[in-house]
Specification:
- This protein is α/β, with parallel strands linked by helices.
- It has helices at about 45-55, 80-95, 105-115, 130-140, 155-165, 180-190, 195-210; strands at about 5-10, 20, 35, 60-70, 100-105, 125, 145, 170.
- An eight-stranded parallel beta sheet has the order 1-2-3-4-5-6-7-8.
- The chain starts with 6 loop residues before the first strand and ends in a 6-residue tail after the last helix.
Length: about 220
């Protein structure tokens, strides 16, 4: 039985097998974690925060940069978001880490990023719940899709895309929801008609294909 259910993005601390999303004010955790500059926080001296991140890039439990990206509802002007995102992806590429992407109403900006930048680190679009056409248009790039609580909603965009998404591009997450990661895998297993242990093994293989650092 394969019983490692990786949680690629969570705001809950201390859960084995998960990547904890470190908040700006939080201390560096002992567990596996990601660290990035959320678009909501870019007006607060993001360059200094990036310097802090860069100083810790050799930590083996720092597994990803993020969440970072684009938010055209709550974020600052797009030019600032683009500048900060590019800086973070370059840092991730330098150290061989993936990027956890936050993207709200910013599809055209991630599309623009991919068209202009090569090479680029693996980018995991967290909490994916967009139309399948959006995902299909990006599949030629090194992008992955992390599915969360939206999978539990009947007929969601997340369900529709998971059904046809290449298995080697999928991850799962709890984000800030009060749910267990097993419930997400269980739902995905039903949607895909794939044994849950096979699914868990696939996700672990997906992680190992984009990172040399292990989720503990």
């Amino acid at each position: 039985m394969y019983r490692i259910f990786l949680d690629i993005h969570t705001h809950k601390k201390g859960i084995p097998g998960s990547i904890y999303n470190k908040p700006p004010e939080g201390a560096i955790p002992l567990q596996s974690f990601s660290w990035g500059i959320h678009p909501w926080d870019l007006d607060q001296g993001w360059e200094k925060e990036l310097d802090k991140i860069e100083m810790q890039m050799k930590l083996e439990n720092l597994l990803a940069i993020g969440e970072c990206g684009f938010d055209l509802i709550k974020g600052p002007v797009p030019s600032l978001q683009k500048e900060a995102f590019l800086a973070q992806t370059k840092l991730a590429e330098q150290y061989g880490l993936p990027v956890i992407l936050h993207c709200v109403k910013g599809f055209h900006l991630i599309q623009e990023y991919f068209k202009k930048n090569e090479p680029t680190p693996a980018i995991i679009w967290h909490g994916y719940n967009q139309k399948t056409e959006i995902a299909k248009s990006l599949i030629s790039y090194p992008i992955y899709f992390s599915f969360g609580k939206a999978l539990l909603d009947g007929d969601s965009n997340a369900q529709k895309w998971l059904k046809i998404c290449p298995l080697e591009r999928i991850f799962f997450e709890t984000d800030d929801a009060e749910i267990e990661i097993f419930s997400i895998y269980e739902q995905a297993s039903l949607i895909l008609q794939l044994p849950i242990d096979n699914l868990a093994k696939q996700v672990s293989q997906n992680w190992n294909s984009i990172s040399k650092r292990k989720i503990t």
